[in-house]
Amino acid sequence: MQYGLCVPCLGEFAAPRSVADLARRAEEAGWDGLFVWDHVVFPYGAVEVADPWVLLTLVADATERIRFGPLVTPVARRRPGTLARQTTTLDRLSRGRLVFGAGLGFTLEAEYGSWGEPTEPQEVAARLDEGLALLTELWSGEHVDFRGAHLSATDVTFLPTPVQRPRPPIWIGCNWPNRLPLRRAGRWDGVAPMILGPDGSFGPTPEIVTELIGALTEHRTGAGNFDVVITGRTPADRPGAAGATVGAIAAAGATWWLEGFHPGPGQYEEALRRVTAGPPRADNALGGDARKQE
User: Which site among 6, 154, 266, 281 is 20 to 30 Å from 14 CA-CA?
Assistant: First the structure.
């Protein structure tokens, strides 16, 4: 199990240097990753918004070990050539630590309708799939002639290539229990579901993770590593309870646990407290450092 944070690019997290400092502290405290939302505008009220690629550039520069990336980029609203350049440059800057999270976007009306672009889910999904296919060809460094229903690239060779070969890992975002995106996730390297309870708070359980992995299995086409990335919240002041919660999620088959934060007053300070307390490792369920129990 690996442990990370997922923070907005909004509100208190819209300050690039603050997010870079959070990433640096996370690395020092033993966390494995930091991921950011990707929005141009936010559908729920006027709020400060930062460009995720600027945030991630500072994160890459402030750290040496942790993985990072967008969760998730709405690929269909970005030009694939520009996206290939941004991701390649970040992967090279970080010496191969980028994870590329991709999805439709949230909400379609805000991500696309605000700019006069089509909001029909089927068309956005088709553009997402074509975008991912074109990105992988561009990342290859080989000659590309791509003709799709929505996208094309003519006589293009993208150099340099990302450090990671054949490409950075791709995680597909989805809203559970919607199962259609699992077909897409099964073709790539991981799934990052948003699992919410009736009140809108994070609501992952071992039972849901087991069900999700079971539903995903029939769609898996690759033979390599596959990540199941679960986002939730655990208390900073109760390491035993946090370790027990995440240990049960890991036993159900998850490979990453992300502490998730929302925009709002005090959320950045809460993230700092959670980072400083350290990852919710399963050995903390024993009541502290497992080595002290020997």
Answer: 281
